[in-house]
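sry for the spam today, last one i promise. struct tokens for design, 389 residues
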């Protein structure tokens, strides 16, 4: 009898001890601090843990930055393909309504886009070559304009030569010649990268469009069951934001092009319709766009260079750019992006530093996508609020 009583009491004792042990374990796992004062050893242990976590975060951030910088070519090609697929997705959806297979609709959309871009490139090349043939006609006028500047530069050079100390006559100055082989090889590698990107983008866009539903569902399945709904919503919001960003920029570019064509046509610039389209869409590039938009009409006006005409071009393009960025841009894209100017400026600086010109173009949609992700993840919502307006 006593043995049986002891055997019966042991499970009860274990059942009483287990909750106490589990509570202590849960308290230690959750990181709750006991009410009593910390010992020196405990304080040092926690300080070391915090330092280790900070070191891991810094190393992870450095690894990500290195990966983004080293994989610039691949990431830029993928992002451009994603943006293009979002633009063509409505056209593919429209074709599928007429019982056209999605793969065939994607192929037709990509082919039409390639043909339009090739046609625009051919027209641009022909107009540029025609303008280059007319440049010798402007040579005398350009030389007459540059002559005063060259004369002043020569006077400054003579003055600095007099002020310089005489050098030893025995000194031999060796001037390094230009290595044309390195120059050609560097340009050849850059051209080969551009050609490689242009050949990959249509295929990537085609597969992204034809496998859109599969890619989206497979991406959602990568998350846990409790997070799949949020992931599905985030993907939809990001897709809608990117599509609105591209369509909104296209609408603003068309508006600027029409206004620029009208202005350059009234001024009588050669190829005013071609210059207006280039200037209008160049003006969409953040920060550098207004300078790039002014250059084509100024160069085209070399034959009739006047102070009044140049000022009209500069202030006209600048006024259109200010109206587009301060009136049209907030109205059309502000509700979709919801990014504050400081966040946009920092994003342009960061991505421009990493990827150059393509970073400036892709900075805004990348930052908008990051904000949407932060807004839909509870732990990251403070960062999304910081990026927002």
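last one done:
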């Amino acid at each position: 009898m006593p043995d049986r009583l002891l055997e019966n009491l042991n499970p009860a004792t274990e059942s009483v001890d287990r909750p106490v042990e589990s509570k202590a374990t849960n308290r230690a796992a959750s990181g709750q601090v006991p009410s009593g004062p910390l010992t020196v050893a405990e304080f040092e242990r926690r300080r070391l843990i915090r330092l280790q976590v900070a070191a891991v975060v810094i190393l992870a951030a450095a690894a990500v930055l290195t990966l983004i910088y080293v994989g610039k070519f691949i990431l830029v090609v993928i992002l451009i393909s994603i943006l293009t697929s979002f633009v063509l997705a409505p056209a593919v959806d429209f074709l599928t309504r007429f019982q056209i297979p999605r793969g065939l609709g994607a192929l037709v959309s990509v082919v039409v886009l390639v043909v339009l871009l090739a046609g625009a490139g051919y027209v641009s090349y022909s107009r540029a070559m025609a303008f280059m043939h007319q440049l010798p006609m402007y040579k005398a006028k350009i030389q007459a304009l540059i002559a005063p500047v060259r004369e002043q530069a020569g006077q400054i050079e003579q003055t600095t030569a007099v002020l310089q100390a005489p050098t030893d006559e025995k000194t031999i100055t060796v001037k390094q010649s230009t290595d044309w082989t390195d120059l050609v090889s560097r340009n050849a590698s850059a051209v080969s990268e551009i050609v490689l990107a242009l050949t990959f983008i249509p295929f990537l866009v085609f597969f992204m469009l034809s496998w859109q539903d599969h890619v989206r569902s497979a991406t959602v399945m990568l998350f846990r069951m409790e997070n799949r709904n949020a992931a599905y919503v985030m993907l939809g919001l990001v897709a809608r934001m990117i599509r609105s960003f591209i369509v909104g920029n296209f609408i603003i570019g068309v508006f600027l092009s029409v206004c620029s064509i009208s202005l350059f046509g009234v001024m009588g610039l050669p190829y005013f319709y071609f210059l207006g389209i280039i200037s209008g869409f160049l003006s969409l590039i953040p920060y550098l766009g207004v300078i790039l938009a002014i250059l084509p009409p100024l160069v085209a006006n070399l034959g009739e260079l006047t102070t009044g005409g140049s000022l009209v071009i500069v202030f006209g393009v600048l006024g259109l750019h200010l109206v587009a960025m301060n009136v049209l841009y907030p109205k059309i894209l502000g509700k979709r992006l919801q990014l504050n100017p400081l966040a946009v400026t920092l994003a342009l600086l960061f991505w421009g530093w990493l990827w150059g010109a393509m970073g400036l173009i892709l900075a805004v949609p990348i930052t908008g996508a990051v904000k949407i992700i932060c807004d839909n993840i509870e732990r990251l919502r403070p960062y999304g609020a910081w990026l927002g307006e």
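DSSP finds 14 helices and no strands in the chain. ok im logging off now
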